[in-house]
Write the structure tokens for this entry.
Amino acid sequence: MAVAIRGEIGVNERLQGRGMTSGRTRARMVDRLIKQGIEDNKVLAVMGEIPRHIFVDEALASRSYEDTALPIGHNQTISQPYIVAKMTELLLENGPLSKVLEIGTGCGYQTAILATLIEKIYSVERIAPLLKTAKNNLWDLKIKNVSYQYSDGGWGWSEQAPFDGILVSAAPAEIPETLLRQMAIGGVMLIPVGSRHQQLHKVTRTENGYDDEILEPVSFVPFLSGKK
Ligand code: SAH
């Protein structure tokens, strides 16, 4: 019993943070996002709520609100706050979404942001230990509207398709056909594309095909096939 109570306090303290991981530091990050051009108040509010520091190793926690990607192990990174906010804003630009597929769960930070704004998230990751950590992080935050799959996201999640939104956090050389086919009509996909030089694409599925908008240069880890 005593152990359980201590455990509970530990989690709460960790969520709350202090100093460089406090709510004030998070508020400064939000101010910076506004200066960088993020306008959607719902997105800004969630970025101000979700404790980003719990998604990185304790040794890096004090740097977690800097505008930079940080290592999360297994050669992967947590995306920088600006790109998480920007992709979320673009995903929601055409109106609210109810069913979103995320490829590249990583540490689960982007997942937590999406899950706070969208009814149901389906998240796929190809590195098992990362997926496990992400699940634990979202559990600590009491986020329950996420289904996870340990798989190669190149296959999408056909049993749950079509999706009205798809967000991809790793860069393939070309947009995977399978993911295009799993979009609903009117659905939108945010995806970094390219090998050496990547661009963020926003693809919208129309009645007759797909609109592909190229938005800005980005830098993501590569989209790799197979499970690890
Ligand atoms: N949104 C994540 C970003 C993690 S980095 C975060 O904020 O933490 C990108 C992730 O995509 C990595 O975890 C990597 O393993 C994963 N990834 C790369 N290719 C993939 C694929 N084909 N299927 C599923 N996940 C993939």
Summary: The beta strands are 70-73, 76-78, 99-103, 120-125, 146-150, 163-168, 183-193, 198-205, 210-218. The two ends are 38 Å apart (CA to CA). The pocket of S-adenosyl-L-homocysteine is lined by residues 72, 76-79, 103-104, 106-107, 109-110, 124-127, 130, 152-154, 169-170, 221, 223-225 (CB under 6 Å). DSSP finds seven helices and nine strands in the chain.
